[in-house]
Amino acid sequence: MSAEVASPAAPPAGADTRARKLVETFFRVRELGIVGALALLVAVTAILEPRFIELESLRDLLRNASLFAIMAVGQTLVLVTRNVDLSVSSVLALSAFLAGDLLSTSGTPVALVFVLAIGLGAACGLLNGILVTFGRVPALVVTLGTLYAFRGLAFLWTDGRQINAETLPDSYLDIGTGTILGVPALAVIALVVVLVVGYYLRSYRSGRELYAIGSNTLAARLAGIRIDLRVCTAFVISGGLAGLAGALFTARYGTVDATAGTGYELSVIAAAVVGGVAITGGVGSVYGAAIGAVLMGCITSSLIFLKIDAFWQQAAIGALLLVAIAFDRFVGLRLDAALRQRSARRAA
Amino acid sequence: MPPEALAADARPKFAPPAFLGRWETLIAALIVVVIIVGSGLSDEFLTTATITTGSLDLIEIALMALPLALVIVAAEIDLSVASVLGLSSAVMASLWNAGLPLELIIPLCLAVGALCGAFNGVLVTRLGLSSLAVTIGTLALFRGLAYVVIGDESVTDFPTEYTDLAFGTIGGGWIPNVLVLFVVLAIAFALLLHATPFGRNVFAIGANAEAARFSGVRIKRIKLTLFVLSGTVAALAGIVLSLRNSTAAANVGIGFELTAIAAVVLGGVSIFGGKGTIGGVVLALVLLGGIQKALTLADGVSSYWIQIVTGTLLIVSVLGPNLVSRAREARAHASRSRDRWPSARAEDPTRPRKEEAE
Questions:
Q1: What domains are there in chain A, each with its CATH number?
Q2: A&B contacts, CB < 8 Å
Q3: Residues in B touching A138 (Cβ below 8 Å)
Q4: Does residue A223 belong to the interface with chain B, where contact is any CB pair within 8 Å?
Q5: Which residue of A has its CA nearest to B260?
Q6: Does the ipTM surpass 0.85?
Q7: pLDDT means per 10 residues in chain B (358 residues)?
Q8: CATH of B59-320 given 1.10.3470, 1.10.10, 2.40.70, 3.40.1000
Q9: I need a surface site. Which of B66, B85, B148, B241 has the fewest CB within 10 A?
C-alpha cells in the first residue's frame, strides 16, 4: 500500500496493475498468516484440552478480546498516520468511571451513557490531536503526557471511590455478559466497529488519505491532503473508541476504580502490530489489528487451559510481537526487491 | 530560511547572554519556583531530609534516564528498561535462593542486563527494525521472563551490609550512598556524550543518520553499544531497587520506563534525536523529584496531582518552544512577504525543525 500511494510517477499501466496485485497479495497473505496462526493455536489447544472449544469458554475468549479489538481499531488509524496513541488506557478509565458514576448515582438512560462515554473519549482524543497537529508536539510525547494526566484526573475524580456491580442496572450489565443469537454482545459490537472502520479506511477518500500521510507526509502535503485535519480525526476516533471500550469495560466487569485498564496501552499497540500494522506508518488494516487482538486473547486463555504457568503469558506475547515485526520486515524487504526487479526488467 | 534574511530582520539590537536562551536555564528557573512554592506549602520542604528521601524515591528512574538520554539523542528509544530492571531483580532473587553470594550475583545481573540490551540492539541494528516496536515487544518479553524466573515469590533476606549500603547515607548524614553512585554515573555519561568522539557520533547519528553514514560513522556499532549500556544500567537500577527495599521480585518497577522517558524529554532531549544534554536531564530529574516531594509534603493537596503535573509539564516542555518558534516564523514570514518565491516550504507538522547538534 505504501508503495502505490508513494510512487511519484505513474509507471506504465500494465506494470502498475501487476505491481499492485503483488502488493495486495502480500497483504492478503499477511492477514491470512495471522488467521492461520490463530487456527493453529486453537486446534492444538483443542486437541490437548477439548474443553477449550466449549461454547462458553470461546464466548469468554471473545468477550475479553473485544475490548482490545475495539481499541486496536482506533490505534490502527493513528498508527497508520505514523503517530501513536499511548493515552488510550487512561481515556478508558475516565470513560469507564463516567459510565459507572452516571448509572449508579442517576438513572441516566443506557444509550445516553454510551454517547457521553464516547464523547468524553473523543474530547480527550481531540486534545491529543490538537497538541500533535497545531502544537507540533510529537505524538509519543503528547500521549505519554496525557497518559499520565488523564490517569491523574481519573484518580482525582474517583477520589478512592469504586463502582460496584450491585449499583449498576441489570440491563447495562447484560451488555457485558449477554449474548445475541449465541454470540457475546461485546463481540457483536466489536465486529460492527471493525467492519465500519474497515470499510471507511478502505473505501473512503479520507480513509485512504490516512495511508498517504503515513507513507510519505511530505508527498501527502504536496498532493493537497489536509494533514492536520486527518491526523486530528484519527486521534478523535481513537479516543472515542477508547471511550466506548470504557463504557463496555464497566458493563463487562461491573467493578470500576481509577486503576481500570492500567497498562492496556501497550497491549493495544502490540495487538495492532501483531496484526500487521506498521509502527512506522502507512501499512496495515483494522481487520488485521482486530485479529491480532483475538490472537493475543487466545494465547492468554490457551495457556490457562493447558495449565501452563500464567507467568509464561507475557513472555509469549512479547516473543510473538517480535516474531511478527521481524517477519514483516523480512517479507517487506523481499517485496521491495521483487518490485524493484520488476520495474528494472520493464525499463530494460 | 536564508540566513541573511534572519540576520537582517530578526537580530535584536541588544543580544542577551546566550545561556539565558538555554533549555537548562529554564528548567533551573522552574526548580527555583518549585523550591519557593514547596517551602511555602510545607515547612518540612526546605530541609535536608527532602533531599535524602526525594533522591531515594527517584534514584532508579534517575539511573535509567542517563543511558536512555543517549539512546534518544541517537534517535532511538528503549521502552524495555523497566522490564530489564524487573528481570535483574528476579534473577537476583533466584540466584540468592540458589545460595550464590551477592558478590557473584551482582555481576551476573549486570551481565543479564547487558545481554537484554544487546538483544534489543541486534534486533534494531542488524534486522533494521523500529526500536519503538522492538522494545514494546521486549518490554513484555523481559517482564515475562522475570515472572518465569521467580514467579510470584520474592526474596527479602539479603544481608544487611548490602541493604544498608543501598539505603544508607554517607557517614549517617543526609547524602544517600546511591546518590553518589548517580553523580558518578551522571559525570561519566556527560563526559561520554559531550567530550568524546563517541558522543559526537551519537549526536551525528541522531541529527542525520544518512550524513553520519556517509561520514564513516559506524552507526550500527554505536547504537548497539547504546542499547547495551541502557540494559546494563537498567539492571544496575534493579539491583539498587532490590537492595534498597530489601525485596527482590519480578513485579518491581512496572511503568518506570515512561517516567524515565518523561524525565529525558523534559530535560530538553529531542525525541527525534540529535539534541540534548546530560545536564538538562539531571536538572529535569531534580525538578521532577522536587515537584513530587512538594506535592507529597503539602497539606490538603492530593498526591494524584503528581501525575497530572508530570504529564502537563512533559507536553508543555515541547509545546512551549514550538509555539514560540511558530510565532517567530510567522513574523519572519510576514517580513519576507516581498520575497522572490512563494513559501513552498512543506514541513512535516509532527517533526519540529532539526537543529544543529547541540
A1: 42-319 (1.10.3470)
A2: 174
A3: 271-272, 318, 350-352
A4: no
A5: A144
A6: no
A7: 48 62 86 90 84 88 96 95 96 94 94 97 93 90 93 88 84 87 96 96 94 93 97 96 92 87 90 91 93 83 80 84 81 69 46 44
A8: 1.10.3470
A9: B148
